[in-house]
Write a structure and sequence with these properties.
With about 220 residues, this protein is of the alpha/beta class. Among the domains are: about 60 residues, Malonyl-CoA ACP transacylase, ACP-binding (Alpha-Beta Plaits), CATH 3.30.70; about 45 residues, no CATH class. Helix content is about 45%, strand content about 15%. The protein contains 9 helices and 7 strands; from the N terminus they run H-H-E-H-E-E-H-E-H-H-E-H-E-H-E-H. The strands form 2 sheets. It has a 5-stranded mixed beta sheet. A two-stranded parallel sheet has the order 6-7. It is globular and about 50 Å long.
Length: about 220
């Protein structure tokens, strides 16, 4: 739900609207996942172009570009099994314990449900810098940010491009809100030397505040 939290944190939508959308999106994605038996696997290493070509052959889709030579792929379970049985040279395929093929065309019905849910929402423009994981660009228009939120349900997450944008912008620290850990782990590899804090429990807040105050994490 990080995308929705970002919209609330940048005042594009209020907290009540954010919580309503979290519930609607979660239920809609669960319903979409139940329609077909699909899953996701992380592919570590290898050549990206070769992997994308192989995914096209198997009718699989890239779902998360995590950076550092890691791409999460998604689709039908037999196709994922075929990829794991004959991995491309230099790659390792790790099946993920998830309910479906998120961030792919299999979530089309969830996109429709979320689009209906935001139809009566009047967003504001973000009051702080807001990046979109659609392509790592800065979004200055609230309506566009809300549209990207809807489309993101069935489109790949480009965390790799977000990290590149952070680096280009001179970001000096990264704080990941709960549930946290995965993105900080990726950032430590993709943004080497930039301190990062994962806020998993209230005990982590002191470290987050220290980082905001310019103290090394």
């Amino acid at each position: 739900v990080g995308e929705i939290a970002a919209l609330v944190g940048s005042d594009v939508i209020d907290a009540d609207t954010g919580m309503r959308l979290v519930g609607i999106r979660g239920r809609a994605m669960a319903d979409a996942a139940a329609q077909e038996q699909t899953g996701m696997s992380a592919v570590l290493g290898g050549d990206e172009d070769a992997l994308l070509a192989r995914l096209a052959e198997l009718d699989l889709s890239p779902a998360n570009y995590n950076g550092g030579g890691q791409i999460v792929v998604a689709g039908a379970l037999p196709a994922l099994a075929a990829l794991a049985e004959e991995p491309l040279k230099g790659t390792r395929v790790v099946p993920l314990q998830v309910a479906g093929a998120f961030h792919t065309r299999y979530m089309a019905s969830a996109v429709a449900a979320l689009r209906d849910a935001v139809a009566d929402v009047t967003p504001a423009n973000p009051d702080i810098t807001l990046w979109t994981n659609r392509d790592g660009s800065v979004v200055a228009d609230g309506t566009q940010a809300l549209s990207f939120l809807v489309d993101q349900v069935s489109s790949p997450v480009r965390w790799d491009l977000c990290m590149q944008s952070f680096a280009d912008a001179g970001v000096t620290g990264v704080i990941e809100l709960a549930p946290a850990g995965a993105l900080v782990g990726l950032a430590k590899r993709g943004l080497r030397g930039i301190p990062a804090v994962a806020v998993k429990t209230p005990e982590d807040l002191d470290a987050a505040v220290a980082l905001l105050n310019g103290e090394a994490a």
